[in-house]
Amino acid sequence: MKIRDKVACITGGASGLGAATAKRFVELGGKVALLDLNSELVKKIADELGSNATSFSCNVSDAAAVEEIIQQVSDQFGAIHVNVNCAGVGAAVKTVGRDGPMPLDYFNSVIQINLVGTFNSLRLCAAIMQSNEPDVETGEKGVIINTASVAAFEGQIGQVAYSASKGGVVGMTLPIARDLARDGIRCCTIAPGIFETPMMAAAPEKIRLPLLESVLFPKRLGEPEEYAFTVQHIIENTYLNGETIRLDAGIRMTPR
């Protein structure tokens, strides 16, 4: 699928991976709708991108709110061709810590945003994509790209909720691709390693430095623009489907 004149709905679009993806999409001639809980920041990003961008504030796990927004996006732009899900949260909380067992509300909140929120967005976007005219060259109607993490495979101490949520994203990738194949809609997932994002910026040096030591090459944090380039490649490479792509410079995390 060529990006020019296509419409993308991007969750977590106010910063980090989502903002970088939106910028690249617009630079390539596409239009974007950005969804994020941070209403001020997501509006600022959309304003910076110009007339081909719009913004909405919502919790991605809120079924009614997201359904209303997705319909507004479709009405405004006439279609939705791409859905990129970057919205996510996570903090280090052990199964049993000094203050006792992990609060169940915390575990549920991470699952709701990272896993349920991802599915909520993609299911609604996929329903809109079904009405698209098939691409003349490829026959496809849409592309869904989700964001997992290498923590889905090698979760660290304190990452049980985060790893479970991202493992769920990986696990549903192939079934979704199979469900939507007859509609000409592809689904892939990107599993980033350690990236220069607000979530990583908030981590203390004692966590960041050991992780950097586990990176093979190049020995640095990933740049959001590298994630955006991977999104572009998935969109443009029609033969990519049902796959989770590790974007991690060869990192294999060990317990810390």
Could you explain how this protein is built, in words?
With 256 residues, the chain is of the alpha/beta class. It has helices at residues 16-27, 39-49, 63-77, 104-129, 160-180, 198-201, 205-213, 224-236; strands spanning 7-11, 31-36, 53-57, 82-85, 96-97, 100-101, 142-147, 185-192, 244-247. Strands 3-2-1-4-7-8-9 form a seven-stranded parallel sheet, sandwiched between helices. Strands 5-6 form a two-stranded antiparallel sheet. Helix 1 packs across helix 8 (224-236) and helix 3 packs parallel to helix 4. The longest helix has 26 residues, at 104-129. The relative contact order is 0.15. The mean pLDDT is 95.
> How confident overall, as mean pLDDT?
95
Shape estimate: globular
The SS-based structural class is alpha/beta
Share of residues in helices = 40-55%
What is the number of helical segments per DSSP (H or I, 4+ residues)?
8
How are the secondary structure elements laid out?
Elements: E1 7-11, H1 16-27, E2 31-36, H2 39-49, E3 53-57, H3 63-77, E4 82-85, E5 96-97, E6 100-101, H4 104-129, E7 142-147, H5 160-180, E8 185-192, H6 198-201, H7 205-213, H8 224-236, E9 244-247
Parallel strand pairs: 1-2, 1-4, 2-3, 4-7, 7-8, 8-9
Antiparallel strand pairs: 5-6
Helix pairs in contact: 1-8, 3-4, 4-5
Quick structural gist:
This protein is an alpha/beta fold and 256 residues long. Helices cover 43% and strands 16% of the residues.
